[in-house]
Write a structure and sequence with these properties.
Elements (H helix, E strand, L loop, with lengths): L17 E7 L2 H8 L9 E4 L6 E4 L1 H5 L8 H10 L3 E4 L2 H15 L6 E5 L2 E6 L3 H19 L3 E6 L2 H13 L6 E3 L5 H9 L10 H9 L6 H5 L3 H7 L2 H10 L7 H8 L3 E11 L2 H21 L2 E12 L8 E12 L2 H12 L9 E13 L13 H17 L42
Helix pairs in contact: 4-5, 10-11, 13-14
EC number: 2.7.7.7
Protein name: DNA-directed DNA polymerase
GO biological process, one term: error-prone translesion synthesis
Length: 439
């Protein structure tokens, strides 16, 4: 009979249990293989918008030395000779499978923090042996139900769980589950010593050179640094990372999101150049609606925006328009956003120019409802409800079922991105359901 679970152990932050990170292995490639098992074991790459560059690789593709960001047109002939298969980015499929993974994780604990499309933190009680077995159980369940492999890292803090997940992915003997609590202090020291500081969650390349100038090149050296000194020289987030490496649980994904979501960008390349202001108006209407939807999903409003459009950098002369401005009031509705974007950009669009890319970035974000409206000429309150209504209709009837103005077109325009190697969207489109043949 198994031993009962260990009692909840409060962390220094007052949150009980240990942190578990569940991370999908080569997420996009794994999702592509769900309905195409013939791709199992085949070098597989997923391409960016308009089938431009490699944005995801299977382990087999990585083993061949294929690098992230390499343009597909440069790689294609070589890939054909080496049996590499390419797929267009199928975000509908990836998002749908991600939602199913998160639903499964929610069956094990209500304390699930979704960090990205392929990562989620869980908080669970138990001994190292019990949590390791729980990680293996979760891995088997996701693989059985969805056909997607995951790795599991466990630690006292989010940072240590992230570090353990890296080991789980890259150490075959661990069986894709690693718990740092199962190691002796000397072993943990060796792991931290072997980890470049740039590989730590929340540090990255942007601080690597500055830390190296102080003689800090490994995770162990950062752990042993003075948090007060590092806070003065860098920021409070790095000081918290030091405490997390020491086992003090003091970072949540909300802290990381504060660093990541200072703006919301929606930008795409066009499959066919846009050549006149009317077409660009259509582009801005669609992009504004997409950006506003993201804004509402994180319960924020924007006070400013930046818009741009450019011709190809490979065709001379290059023409780029880039302008920033303020919204008339903090808003999350697409009507306000698209009007401000068009007011900034359309007068600068030169008919006949072949624009190949455009984008909208929403700036100066704040929590929705946090700032009271002081302007006596307050905006029409129906605009705020309009965006939410569009979201609900599209959620119920499918993306693109309802749009505002130019964003409500019924047929895709010529300039929308090219995805010539798109796999079937078997979980979101009736016409693309997988066909099963019995023999």
């Amino acid at each position: 009979m198994p031993a009962p679970p260990a009692p909840l152990t409060p962390s220094p932050s007052g949150r009980p249990g240990r942190v578990m990170l569940v991370d999908v292995d080569s997420c996009y490639a794994a999702c592509e293989r769900v309905f195409h098992p013939e791709l199992e074991g085949v070098p597989l790459v997923v391409l960016s918008n308009n089938d431009g560059c490699v944005v995801a690789r299977s382990s087999e593709a990585k083993a061949l030395g294929i690098e992230m960001g390499v343009p597909w047109f440069k790689l294609k002939a070589w890939a054909d000779r080496h049996g590499v298969v390419a797929r267009s980015s199928n975000y509908e499929l990836y998002g749908s499978i991600s939602g199913r993974i998160m639903a499964i994780l929610g069956e094990y604990t209500p304390a699930v923090e979704v960090y990205s499309i392929d990562e989620a933190f869980l908080r669970l009680p138990g001994s190292p042996a019990e949590l390791t077995e729980m990680g293996r159980r979760i891995r088997r369940r996701v693989l059985h139900d969805l056909g997607v492999p995951v790795s599991v890292g466990i630690g006292a803090t989010h940072t240590l769980a992230k570090l353990a997940s890296h080991g789980a992915k890259h150490s075959p003997t661990l069986g894709h589950v690693a718990d740092l609590d199962a190691y002796r202090p000397g072993q943990v020291d060796a792991i931290l010593e072997a980890t470049p500081v740039a590989d730590l969650w929340g540090v990255g390349r942007r601080l690597d050179s500055r830390l190296a100038s102080m003689g800090i090149r490994t995770a162990r050296q950062l752990r042993d640094a003075d948090p007060a000194v590092m806070r003065r020289r860098f920021n409070v987030t790095l000081a918290r990372t030091i405490l997390e490496l020491r086992g003090t649980d003091c970072i949540t994904i909300d802290d990381r999101d504060a660093d990541r979501t200072g703006q919301i960008m929606f930008s795409r390349s066009f499959s066919t150049p846009v050549t006149d202001p009317t077409q660009m108006h259509q582009v801005l209407a669609i992009y504004a609606q997409q950006a506003a939807t993201r804004l509402r999903h994180q319960h924020s409003v924007a006070a400013g925006l930046w818009v741009f459009a450019s011709t190809s950098w490979y065709v001379s002369p290059v023409h780029q328009v880039s302008l920033a401005g303020r919204l008339p009031h903090p808003a999350d509705d697409p009507v306000t956003i698209v009007k401000a974007a068009c007011d900034l950009l359309l007068d600068r669009i030169e008919p006949g120019r072949r624009y190949v890319r455009a984008g909208i970035s929403l700036l100066d974000l704040a929590p929705a409802g946090a700032q009271p409206m002081l302007d006596p000429f307050s905006p029409d309150p129906r605009l705020a409800r309009l965006g939410a209504l569009v979201d609900r209709v599209n959620a119920a009837c499918g993306r693109g079922a309802l749009g505002l103005g130019w964003a409500g077109i019924t047929a895709p325009p010529d300039w929308q991105m090219r995805r010539e190697m798109l796999s079937n969207r078997g979980t979101t489109h009736w016409a693309e359901l997988a066909t099963v043949t019995a023999t």
